[in-house]
Each structure stands twice: as structure tokens, then as C-alpha cells.
Amino acid sequence: MTDTTTLTDKAVDRQELESKVKEMYRQVAEEPEGEFHFEMGRALTERLGYPPADLDRIPAQAIESFAGVGYYFHLADLKAGESVIDLGSGSGTDTFMAALKVGSSGRVVGVDMTDAQRTKAERLRDAAGFANVTYLKGYIEDLPVEDAGFDALISNGVINLSADKPQVFREVARVLKPGGRLAISDIVTERQLPEGITCNATLWAACIGGAMQQDDCYAAIEAAGLRVVTREDNPQYRFISDNALGASEKFGVKSVSILAVKP
Ligand SMILES: C[S@@+](CC[C@H](N)C(=O)[O-])C[C@H]1O[C@@H](n2cnc3c(N)ncnc32)[C@H](O)[C@@H]1O
After folding, report:
1. Looking at the predicted structure, is the pLDDT value of residue 70 above 60?
2. Is 156 a pocket residue for ligand 1 (Cβ < 6 Å)?
3. Residues in a beta bridge with 112
4. To test the ligand 1 pocket, which listed residue (8, 17, 21, 87) has its Cβ within 8 A of the most ligand atoms?
5. Measured from the CB, is residue 135 less than 6 Å from ligand 1?
6. What pairs with residue 123 in β-bridges?
7. Whether the CB of 157 sits within 6 Å of ligand 1
8. Does any domain span residue 198?
9. What is the pLDDT of residues 240-254, one digit of tens each?
10. What is the CA(67)–ligand 1 centre distance, in A?
């Protein structure tokens, strides 16, 4: 992760967070039948709004490890021939969804720091013949791609995990073309989380501890130079462990989908 100092740095140990996130999402890739704070898999994707006909065209093993928090493709409005980057692409569900929409004349790049996730996504891509999808090892705070190279940037349940969200949004602004869109689903809170939660790297890795207060999140997107166009709540998404449910009810931890554009 980057060295930039932010208020959130004081709340969580970055190295501990990175190793917890990598271990949690290695398990998501390799042992999706295990117990997690959050739901995964096909039933979740359908409840969030993924069209079953699209899901039928995506490798089932990618969907088993789907750990997203919402559906935003109606906001992304991807068109044939477009270039798309997915931040925290995991086992690949959203990169395959994007590939269906941009077609063979478009391209999709997935970036993820967890080797097990990328390895699984690459294996599934090769078996299913998604020739226009590439995966890169990297951090969302320091994207390994060119400036202004993408029509759209997508991400699902990932930015809340970053210890430097303002830097992530600066990277979003850097890699989008003028007129490019950010379309994401992520976890935010209605009320600011207390340090007891934000210092807990395990709750952070479970997509709760790192969630930004919603107005701060929209302000950080706009501070990076993007204009927020649409915000939607995703009440279909809910946490499942008691620990996570308790925090989510007390502080209004919730899933939202956001569309923003780079002027
Ligand atoms: C909740 S999962 C979501 C994965 C995928 N978007 C999906 O919907 O299934 C979060 C993913 O983001 C990756 N990730 C978390 N923090 C990251 C960071 N700072 N840089 C790169 N990848 C990160 C994790 O390795 C994990 O694969």
C-alpha cells in the first residue's frame, strides 16, 4: 500500500490489514464453501440484480467466489468496443460480465493484489475463452496502467478495504478518459464508525471496518475531480455473521451503487 498518511492510517495497521485481506480473499477463491462474515455465490448475485441469462454465460466457479455487494451494470452502461478496468477483480465475475457487454472489440483489465484470486480468474478465463480479459497484479492505490486509457472503471466491494481511499479515487481520475465513468458498488456507513471497529483489521477485511461515512465518500470522489451523478442504496445486500450484523445495524453500514463521471 502507499505511504500517504491519512486519518484512517491511525486507525488500522496497514501491514496487518493487507495480510488479513489477502488471507481472507485467498480463502474466498480457494474455499468458497467456508464460513465468512458475508454471503457469496449465485443466489447472492441474482438477489442483487445480475440477470440470470448473463450469469449462465459466466464460469460457475467464478460466481461461487463472487464477494461483491451490489449490481451497478445498469449505471455503467457498457457499450461494445469500450475499455474497462475492474478494481479488485477477485475471481472474475464482474470482468466476465463486462466482457460480455464490451464484446470482442472491447477490452477488460482486472487488477487484484491477491495471487489466489488472479490465478483462479485466469484459469477460468482461459477455459471459457474470454480472450479480451487481462488480469494484472497490483494495488488499487497505485494502478499498473496508463493514464486516461479507460472508458469505464468498475469495482464491487473493494474500495472500502483500502486504507487510503482518497488515493484510490485519484487513481480512478488518472486512468479514466475524459468523459469516462466510474460505476461501483461498495459499503458505506450512515454514521461514522468508532475506533473500536476501525482498528479491527478482521472486521475491516470483512468489508465493515473500513467503510467510509457516506457523505465523506461522495466528497472524496468529487475531491478527486469526478462528478457524482447517481447514488442508489442496495437493501438486498446484508451481512450474515452476528458480529457484522450488529455493527451494520448500529452504524447504518450499507451497500450503495454509485455512478460518477470524469469531466
Ligand atoms: C470483497 S472482494 C471482491 C472481489 C470481486 N470484486 C467480486 O465481486 O467478487 C475484494 C477483492 O479486492 C482485493 N483487494 C482488496 N484490497 C485491495 C487493494 N488495496 N489493492 C488491490 N486489490 C485489493 C482482494 O484481494 C479481493 O480479491
Report:
1. yes
2. yes
3. 137
4. 21
5. no
6. none
7. yes
8. yes
9. 878 778 888 899 999
10. 9
How far is 158 from 63, CA to CA, in rounded Å? 16
> Cα separation of 90 and 168, whole Å?
17
Q: What sign does the CA torsion over 120, 143, 211, 227 have?
A: negative
CB of 21 closer than 8 Å to CB of 205: yes
Q: How confident is the model at residue 41 (pLDDT cuts 50, 70, 90)?
A: very high
What's the pLDDT score for residue 10?
A: 52
Query: Ligand 1 in contact with 255 (CB < 6 A)?
Result: no
Average pLDDT, the chain: 93
Q: Does residue 244 sit within a domain? A: yes
Ligand 1 atom closest to residue 161's alpha carbon, by position in its atom list: 16
Q: Residue 215 pLDDT > 80, yes or no?
A: yes
Q: What CATH number is given to the structural domain containing 43?
A: 3.40.50.150
Q: Is the pTM of this model over 0.90?
A: yes
Q: Who wins on pLDDT, 28 or 209?
A: 28
Closest to 206 measured CA to CA, from 216, 197, 215? 197
Flag whether pLDDT at 1 surpasses 50. no
Structural domain containing residue 230 = 7-261
Strand duo 83-87 + 107-112: pairing: parallel
Q: Is residue 119 situated within a structural domain? A: yes
Kindly tell me the burial class for residue 215, based on how many C-beta atoms sit within 10 Å of its own C-beta (0-12, 13-18, 19 or more).
exposed
Compute the average pLDDT of residues 102-108: 98
Is residue 1 assigned to a domain?
no
Distance separating alpha carbons of residues 205 and 209, to the nearest angstrom = 7
Specify the number of domains making up the chain: 1
Name, in order, each residue with C-beta under 8 angstroms of 51's C-beta and a sequence gap of 6 or more.
none
CA of 57 to the centre of ligand 1 (A): 22
